[in-house]
Known about the structure:
The chain is α/β, with parallel strands linked by helices. Helices cover 37% and strands 19% of the residues. The longest helix has 18 residues, at 283-300.
Amino acid sequence: xxxxxxxxxxxxxxxxFFNSATLSEAEVANYPFTTIDANAAIAYVTAxxxxxxxxxxxxxxxxxxxxxxxxxxVELIDVAGLVPGxxxxxxxxxxxxxxxxQARALIHIIDASGGTDAEGNPCEPGTHDPLDxxxxxxxxxxxxxxxxxxxxxxxxxxxxxxxxxxxxKVISEQLTGAGVLLDDxxxxxxxxxxxxxxxxxxxxxxxxxxxxxxxxxxxxxANKIDTPQxxxxxxxxxxxxxxxxxTSAESELALVNAAKAGLIKYHSGEDxxxxxxxxxxxxxxxxxxxxxxEHVLKKYGSTGIQETINKAVYETLNNIVVYPVEDxxxxxxxxxxxxxxxxxxxxxxNPRDLAYCIHTDIGDGFTHAIDARRNMRxxxxxxxxxxxxxxxxxxx
Length: 396
C-alpha cells in the first residue's frame, strides 16, 4: 500500500491533520513530542467511480464508494515532531528519520499562524515566520542521507572505480534503508559529472537533493488557516513556493465528527455541509459550525485535508486509478462483485504492469488484456488512463 508520512515540528497540527484524514485518535496535546511513536492509519484518496457512468452498484473489497465517489486506501504515518538538528540526534531526530524511511512522499505541516517557534513550542501567533519552517525539513532529510553516505564514501568510490561497478546501483544499495530506489539515483546522477572521487561536500549535497526530489517529494501544508494571522502568511508562502495547500485540520476533524454523529451531512473535500437537525445542536456547536463555514469553507473552498491527500497521490506521486475486473462483460470478479478493486498505479503503466500489481503469478502468466468499456483487446504496451476498467487474461 502507498505510504505517505505526515511531518513537521511539534505543535503545528500534525496529529490533528492525521486524525482528521484517518478518523484515528492519535494523542493531541499542546507540548512538544506528543507523538513519540509513529502512528499509522488508513486515509483515502478519492476518485470518480465508473459505477455512476455505468449505472451499476459497485462492491468495493477495500475502501468504499459513496454517491459515485470512490475512496481508495493509502497509509498515513504520523511521525515524531522534528526540530532543527534532528539529523544530529536532537529532539527525537533519529526516530523521526527512521519512521519516514519507507514513505514515498512527505506531507510537511507548518503553522500558518506563526504561533509555533523554531523548537516547536507555542508562541504568540504572528511572532514566528512560517517561511522559516519550510526549508528546514528538506535540510534535515538531506543531511540525514548525507550522514549515511559520507561515512562510507571513500570506500564506495574506490570500489566503484577499481571494480568498474555501476555507480547508481552501489549508491542505491547503500540507501535502501532510507527508502531510496535505483531509479531515484539514476535520475540524480544525470545532473552530475562522473569524477566521483573529486566530489566535494557541496557536490554530494546537490546529488542528494536531486535524489530526494523523487525519493521523498515534499508537499507543503499551511495549517491553521482559520486564524487571523494566516492569510498574509499563506500569500507569502504561495509567492515563494509552487505548491502550498491551505488547511484547517481542526475544522475538518469537527466536521467529520459531526457527520459521524449524524448532526450534519458532509463529505471530506466539499465546500459546504448541510445541518440535518438544528434542534440537536447546542449553541456552542452552532457557533463552531458557523465559524468553520465563514472562515474556512467559504474563504478557501474546503478544509484542504482531502485536497492534500489527492494532490500527494495524483500530482506529486503521479498515480492514476485503474479498475481490474475478471468478467469484462459484467465489470465484475468471479463472484459477481461489481468493480471490486480500485488500484493506484504509476502514470505510464501498461496492462502488463497492472498484472504484476495484482499478483506476481498473474504478471508472469500475462497473455493479453481487454478494455472492458469497449470490450476490445488492447496492446500489452498501451498506456493506461485514469478510470480504465481492464480485464487481465493470464495463463494459470
